[in-house]
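pinning this so it doesn't scroll away 📌
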Amino acid sequence: MSSVRKLMTRRCGIDTSILVRLTTGEPARDFDRTVAALTRLVEAEHVALFASPMVIGEAYIALQHHYGVSKPDAKAALRSVLSSGLVAPSAGEEVLEALSSRHGCGLLDRLIVLQYAADGLETLTLDRKMAALPKAARLSLGPAKR
């Protein structure tokens, strides 16, 4: 059993506090320790690290609200961390595309659709821009009742 366990990669999801720390680099002392601890997990213990769409969305808001980062800069910083090789988006490469998008619906709507798609679900919405995304559809309300 132990030889089988060694071949299996442990998969862990990070929380928002770690993603924000990796994105801001603040405070510097804790940033260095966080990177060292995560690197140790990846290199020595062969752990694969992921950030969920919910964590990415929460970090996006936290960067704006608590750190005064603009939306474009927050998206660029998150994309940089999530493409660094240390942490990957759990919903796949499409998250990196969502972080690069400048037209259509917002990042949080895109992350919602990606999470549902990762769960094998289609997203229903009343939002026209969101409904234009793959794996999303606009809910038909039918005629209004009198």
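📌 and the second one:
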Amino acid sequence: MLLNSRLGRAPVAMALALASMSVSVTAQTPAGQDLKHYESGTRDFWLHPPPDWFLGDETAQQKGLAPTAGPATGMSEEEIQAALKDIKLPPGFHISLFASGVNSARQMAWGDKGTLFVGAFSVGNVYAVVDNNGKKDVKTILTGLKMPTGIAFRDGALYVVDVDRILKYENAEANLAALPAPKVVYDDMPPYVAHGWKYLTFDKAGWLYVAFGPPFNIGIPPTSVAQIRRIDPNTGLAEIVALGVRNSVGGDIDPRTGDYWFSENARDWVSDDLPSDKLNHIARLGEHFGYPYCHQGDLPDPKFAMGHKCAEFTPPVLNLGAHVAPLGMKFYTGDQFPADYKNNIILAEHGSWNRHKYQGGRLVRVVVDPKGKTAKQEVFASGWIKGDHDYSGRPTDILMAPDGSILVADDWAGAVYRISYNK
């Protein structure tokens, strides 16, 4: 299906902290506990979610669970260096601090001249990390955006996705002190902030894969979301390539086939151990990956299955675990790591909040054939979770470096790390 973009300039007036304009309903458990509940299946909720919209399906079993706020301005360099001493890696691998002061760091992209661009989750910024005689200088090059988590770079231009529009900044590396006015290359996008943060992946043809998350935890989604589109930024044309996708904020092109693979965060408020987050692979146009009817390939939703069978939908390549929150991922294409890492996936797991004992908060290595038939995972880097529910960092994205090492973004610490290998 082709969709035409309106190439006009989209409105920018949308606050991240939205005032509550939805009705909160208090449910009573048999024990008399009050449970938070929102009626999220309305356009008013989608456009004006309360600040705690993600708590609106609370259960007695998981009552009281909520996301923990990270350091408002990230961690100091000294705190980061201390935390890195606890990170466990396979023999021969080493982690070091590449750059600090990258507040709320999310997706990363290299410029043609070696500039590292970094998007952000909650502070409205985009950064450029430049080398200054061996020291990494972090420059804030864009401010005041809504939620510019996703960025990409191609043919001299920086692309930034900001909830409901994709912006193109020409000749970005030559104008870091004052980027030129952007061109809106695509804005046929809903304005929903809840799950509106996005990730950009260019394919070899120069089209962008972009996932659109539903504006709530679980429900029948608006028809413009719970999907992945492939967008041509040169013409504004787009096609829907996958349906039934909840919240995907990471993906990459398989260098062996050109197919798109993506991580997916499953719904909350079922239990500590269900459902599993997923790694998926689009093998044909228009596949449906189950949301909201079926989770993890074999778990019908207790309310929204509505007679559907899980066999109707494309199963995941791999179930990653419950509430691990997989985000950015890359196929390893370098030569620095051991040979058996070639074409493996390195995936950043942001870590839990809707679970009594957190898991995730690590990097995993996925070994898989091009058709996704023999997938297995192993922990690659861990140590950012202390005890049951304390973080010293939360990985968000992976990026190949020119020398074959990898970079890791961390929005909790406000940092970028480098992982290298020496025999």
